[in-house]
Design a protein that fits this description.
three-stranded mixed beta sheet, single chain, about 35% strand, 3 helices, alpha+beta, Phage tail protein beta-alpha-beta fold
């Protein structure tokens, strides 16, 4: 199976989501073609600019995430899309108790 990861910005702002020095609110277009959770977590942390508290059971899940959007998304939209994909595809509930902290746990 093809493994693809892409997160691109607009022509004026290339890849702002992965540049923590850039204060842009745009994340770009997301295209994950079945990537491992650890890669999703790295990207998520940079997008959210937050510390991730990930439950041990979640870290060991063998899930792969597929997600594609066709329009440029804001950081907030990209995070919401990832939250929904993690829940739907891996049973991971994501909460945001503080702006700089994200909790990821298995749906119970």
């Amino acid at each position: 199976m093809e493994k693809r990861v892409a997160l691109t910005g607009s022509a004026q702002q290339p890849s702002p989501a992965l540049d923590s020095s850039n204060n842009s609110r745009l994340a770009g277009v997301i295209s994950f073609g079945g990537i491992d959770l650890d890669e999703v977590f790295k990207i998520y942390g940079e997008l959210a600019q937050a510390r991730l508290d990930i439950e041990e059971q979640v870290k060991s899940l063998p899930a792969k995430i597929r997600l594609t959007n066709t329009t440029i998304a804001s950081r907030e939209e990209a995070i919401r899309l990832l939250d929904n994909a993690l829940l739907a595809q891996a049973g991971i509930v994501v909460t945001h108790p503080e702006t700089n902290r994200v909790i990821m746990r298995l749906h119970r």
